[in-house]
Each structure stands twice: as C-alpha cells, then as structure tokens.
Write a structure and sequence with these properties.
316 residues, 6-stranded parallel sheet, two-stranded antiparallel sheet, binds iron/sulfur cluster
C-alpha cells in the first residue's frame, strides 16, 4: 500500500505482470488519511466481497500507551533545549532529532517546519516581535541541516542584520536517519573527506561572535547564552558533542533519584527517556532507568530540589 503515487503498481504492470492490484482496492486519497490496519482490512474485505466482520479495533481491546518519539537518553541536544527553556527563548527548530524538542514532554520549540528552515522562520518572527520574550530568539538546527540548506538561512540573517542567535547542534552526523556523515563530519566514510569547519565558515560570512562549546558543560553553556542575549545582533553558538550513538559505550555512572524528590516534573521536562514515572495506587513514583541512563548529569542540573545524585558504576 503506497502512501502517495502508485509507483510500484505502475512499474510492476509495465513489466508485464498483469495480476496486480493497488488503487482499484485502496481507492481513497492517501494524502488525506492515515493508512490504518482497519482501513486496509476493510478495503480487502470489500474487494473480496466478504461481509465485513464486526471487528473491534485492536486498540480498543488492548491498552497500548501512547509513546511519542523521543531523543536518546543523554542526547547532547537536550542540554541546549533545557537551557533555552530556562531562558524563555522563542525557538524555531530544525527537523529530525532537533524537531523532537517541540513535542510534549519537552515543549522547548515554538515551531518546527522543515530541514534548514529555522533561521528564516526565526528571522521573520523576530521582525514581527509579538512575544513575551523581546530580543530572545534562536534558530536551532543540526550540522546536517546546515549543509542541507541552513547555510542559506544564515546568509539571509547576516544580510538582513538580524537580531537572532543561531545555535548549531553539531553532533558530527545526521542522527535521526541513522548516522550518515556530511561535509563537516570527522566520521565521514566518504573518500572525498573534506571536513569543512563550521566556525571558520561562520567567520567567513562576517559573523564576529562565533563560539564552540561542549553542551555537557551546562553552567558554561548557560552563562554563554546569557551573555550573548545581552548583546544585540547575530551570535553563532556551535554546541559540539558527538551523537550519543557514537560514544555511549563510555558509561561511567548513572543518575539516581532520592528521597527529596517532590515530583515536580522538572526533570521529565528535559525529555530524557531514562526518567520514568509509575503510578502505584495513590502514589506517583519517579525513577531513572539504569539501563538507559548514560550519566550525562542533565537531570541533576535541572532538579532544583537537588534530589538527583550521580552514582559511579563498577567497571564503568
Ligand atoms: S526535578 Fe527533582 S524533585 Fe522534581 S520530579 Fe525530578 S527528581 Fe523529583
Ligand atoms: S543523567 Fe539524567 S538526563 Fe542524563 S541520561 Fe541519565 S537520566 Fe537522562
């Protein structure tokens, strides 16, 4: 069942195989609907002239909790979003791993549109300036997006004397689609390794305030953003840390939630999937999944009750 055009169906028919069905069975416009298992079964029943059986949807029989896509536990991107939330910044994000920041429970981005669109969108929003956060705008996108089309957006911001900050989440790969390399990747598997330098590129465009920072250095990162939001004009912050998939083997410790926890949910708001809740009767329990946690310490930084501690692990 193809979502848009009947490409496979047409090509197979062109190969001379006549006994093929597609749009004659699935007649609706897929652009306007979701292809659910119920939809597929009803179309097939219809085609086979079978009396549709009264079926309960599977989801009515079994309680399947809704699970939205999330970043990995310890993803360096989560530090950026936790700080931007704290600073009440209006954020346009790129797609992929950055785009997950717009979903509950993180709710850190105001808009996510398409690959490389963040700088253009945030520039427009800053010009309209109808927010509670005057002067606090950020375009946040990944290094893969920069090379895809984000560079055009940065040039546009420079040309138009924008007052937005640009945060490039440089994790050295295109994470969401499996870790493909790109022109600034150290991990490039291409023989034509060119290793473009993002900082040099931004300087070449005439941007004076360009910084590289390890996003895991939470306090330094926070202070850098506070400093840059005091200054008008463009700043570029390159949050440089490899994708967690490239270095999570080096786990030395984990975070543990202690007795002081007041169940305020601040730690959940980081979007780290290792932080879990469970309702037991009247009680709501917060805990950290020790298998998922990689000990990045973000939750420790955001917990204002100091209820989370770091515990070293043996043979870490
Ligand atoms: S932020 Fe701290 S106090 Fe709040 S729920 Fe998490 S661990 Fe508990
Ligand atoms: S230290 Fe906290 S934020 Fe980092 S991976 Fe573990 S639970 Fe998640």
């Amino acid at each position: 069942v193809e979502e848009t055009d009947s490409i496979l169906e047409t090509m197979i028919r062109a190969m001379g195989i006549g006994n093929i069905h597609g749009r004659d069975v699935f007649k609706h416009s897929f652009a306007d609907m979701h292809i659910t298992s119920e939809y597929i079964r009803s179309c097939v029943d219809n085609y086979l002239c079978k009396e549709p059986e009264p079926r309960m949807a599977y989801r009515d029989k079994v309680h399947v909790p809704i699970r939205l896509p999330q970043n990995c536990a310890g993803c360096p991107h989560l530090f950026t979003y936790a700080i931007l939330k704290k600073l009440n910044v209006v954020v346009a994000s790129g797609i992929g791993c950055c785009g997950l920041s717009a979903l509950p429970i993180m709710n850190a981005s105001n808009i996510v549109q398409s690959m490389g669109s963040a700088p253009g969108i945030i520039h427009g929003m800053s010009r309209v300036e109808q927010t509670d956060s005057p002067g606090r705008y950020a375009a946040v996108f990944g290094d893969g997006e920069l090379w895809h089309s984000g560079l055009m957006g940065i040039i546009n911001l420079v040309y138009n004397n924008s007052n937005c900050k640009i945060i490039i989440l440089d994790n050295d790969v295109i994470g969401m689609t499996g870790g493909q390399p790109h022109p600034s990747s150290q991990y490039s598997n291409s023989e034509k390794k060119i290793n473009l330098n993002i900082k040099d590129l931004c300087k070449t465009l005439g941007i004076e305030r360009v910084f590289e920072i390890d996003p895991y250095c939470y306090e330094d990162y926070y202070n850098l953003l506070v400093q840059e939001y005091r200054i008008d004009g463009i700043s570029v912050i390159i949050a440089k840390k490899p994708c967690i998939r490239l270095h999570k083997g080096n786990k030395k410790g984990i975070a543990v939630i202690g007795e002081q926890c007041v169940k305020c949910g601040q730690c959940l708001g980081t979007g780290c999937p290792a932080i879990e809740t469970e309702r037991k009767g009247e009680k709501l329990l917060y805990r950290i999944n020790q298998v998922l946690c990689i000990g990045c310490k973000l939750c420790i930084r955001v917990c204002s009750k100091k209820a989370i501690v770091y515990k070293e692990i043996e043979n870490g």
